[in-house]
Amino acid sequence: xxxxxxxxxxxxxxxxxxxxxxxxxxxxxxxxxxxxxxxxxxxxxxxxxxxxxxxxxxxxxxxxxxxxxxxxxxxxxxxxxxxxxxxxxxxxxxxxxxxxxxxxxxxxxxxxxxxxxxxxxxxxxxxxxxxxxxxxxxxxxxxxx
Length: 145
What we know:
This protein has one helix at residues 55-72; strands spanning 29-30, 36-41, 75-86, 95-106, 109-118, 123-136. It is mainly β. Strands 1-2-4-5-6-3 form a six-stranded antiparallel sheet, with helices on one face. The N and C termini lie far apart (30 Å).
């Protein structure tokens, strides 16, 4: 991955891209406790077993939250490692709260974490990862700017 350059968002990213017809169209905002969060409902297009969001899509939710947590710090990065834990089934067509935050930063590597919770606050999935910085964001490009 050392030959990668700063990623460019062309609006077609499946997690939050504005132009993607099949995207989740997630929107993140800064939360009160140094986290970022997005409220999203996943439809049947992304179903695994009946009534349950496919595990790969849950991974996408976690990864997206981690990327936005890094972005809130002004860092554009790429996923180097992602570990997920599924605690309960993530339901289709139900409101979800996705949160992400930075755990630590050492030079160009960030430790990040995220959760997916149900509408009642129950944690359904957790994730931890490492992101490698590939560039910085200008203050006007940062989350909440």
